[in-house]
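Running this now, will post back.
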Amino acid sequence: MKLAGQLRPIVAALTVLTATACAAQAEEANDYPTSARAEYVYGCMKANGESRQSIEQCSCSIDVVASIMPYQRYVTAEAALSMSQVRGNLGVQFRTSEQANSAVNDLRRAQAEAEVRCF
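Update: finished.
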C-alpha cells in the first residue's frame, strides 16, 4: 500500500510532462498563423481555379508545406520571392543571395511535395 502511495506523485508528474510535450509538439506543427494560411490558400485558389475542390486542395497544400518547413523559413522564402521582383540593386541582392535562394528552394520543394500529395 505504501508503494502505491509513493508512485502516485511520480505517475502524476510523468502525466503532466507527457501532456506538456504533446502540446509543445502540436504547437510546433501548427506554428503558421491563420492569416498566413488564408493568404496562401487565396493565392493558390487564384492560380488553380476558384472551386470547392481547389479550396480543399489548397488547404491540404498549406498543411503539407507547414509540416515540412518552419514558419520562419517560410516567411524568409516569401520575402525573398517578393523582393526578388524589385528592379535594381535591391532586387539583385535578393536574387543572388545564397540564403534567399536556399529558402526559396526549400519552399519550392515543399510545394512540390504538396502538389504530389494534394492535387
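Residues 2-29 form the longest helix (28 residues). More later if anyone needs it.
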